[in-house]
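Troubleshooting log. The previous structure file for this entry was overwritten by mistake, so regenerating from the original sequence record. Sequence copied from the archived sheet and checked twice against the printout by T.R.
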Amino acid sequence: MEYDTLISNGLLLTMEEGLPVIEAGAVLIKDGIIEACGRTTEFSRVNVKTRIPADRKIILPGLINCHTHLPMSMFRGLADDLPLDVWLNDHIFPAEAKHINPESVEKWSRHSCMEMLLSGTTTCCDGYFYEASVAKAVMASGIRVVTGQGVIDFPAPGVPDPRQNIQTAIDFVEQFKDVSPRLYPSIFCHSPYTCSKETLVAAKQSAHSLGVLFQIHAAETKNEKKMVQGIGKMSIVEYLESIGILDEKTLLVHSVWIDDQDIDRIKKNNAAVAHCPESNMKLASGIAPIPRLIEKGVSVGLGTDGCASNNDHDLFAEMDTAAKLHKVALLDPCVMDARTTLKTATIQGAKAIGLGHVTGSLEKGKRADLILVDRDKPHMIPMYDPYSSLVYSAKASDVSLVMVDGIVLVRQGIVL
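Regenerated output below.
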């Protein structure tokens, strides 16, 4: 049998169970699928079309960005150093009303995809408006994506009549559900304070019937509970559970202001969390109890959020921030160790967005989504532990090759 690609002689981190480190490792690929991983010597007699040497490189799964708003790279730096409510209501919403259209959404989604690919992200989970234009952009880029049509109880880009918000999301999912194995349509309710109980329930029921992921910003700020009508004394998570929102296909974004009872509710319902530490820090939203969520067995993925509230899509910087933030917050240097943190950006991130069977680790049968990271840079030498080096030393610019579905999309810092 002839295989398509053999990547060989790299330091291989598969991110599978046990987190093995394979010296002089190799990945064998055919038809976009991983056929085998192991030591390079095991593949000496393999018939292969293309051989990619990975000498002095780390081979690992492509990174998973579990929360972003791709078109919002057009607002990068537009309104910095402001409280969330002022930032959103006085700057972002007006800018969206003026500048968001199908053409701008497609253009800046392509821009964001380029930025992510160059920094080693091979899969992202997006939520925004005019999501059909986002889908068009991501399909052209080659990246893997969960793409969620936004739902909000106000006139929004592409949905001037809020009464059509659910149907617009349903139409989007039905239009794109079987378009490509790299695209997974989703429904994204903005938040419990911008969507009524009736909207949340109808959107979740629609997502459930369509078998797709349901995304929602939840418990992002300390004052959020005061903005939700009909919540009474319940917490945000308790409220969402009470109306049937939480299940294994629900992604709770941020989850900053939650307590141990909320964590138990999230775990009991098998919901997942997207952690966006840099955005939460920049908007002074707070620090999510991520170590406790992980300790309880909740799937936690790492996200950048949109470029308007983070300013970049760099998951290497996000990993470094996430690891250090929780250490200083808990005054414990042992929490969010490098292995745990890298898992949030790979296999646990994939599980959080429902793609753990597709990507997030390098294993036989999964899609060939992987990256090579240069270990010859001065800041990567010496390397006592590759996991620590990736989380605390590596930079996005160290990514030398990016592959999605077995196709090389970036080589030596150039988007092909």
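The first helix runs from residue 84 to 99. Archived copy saved in two places this time.
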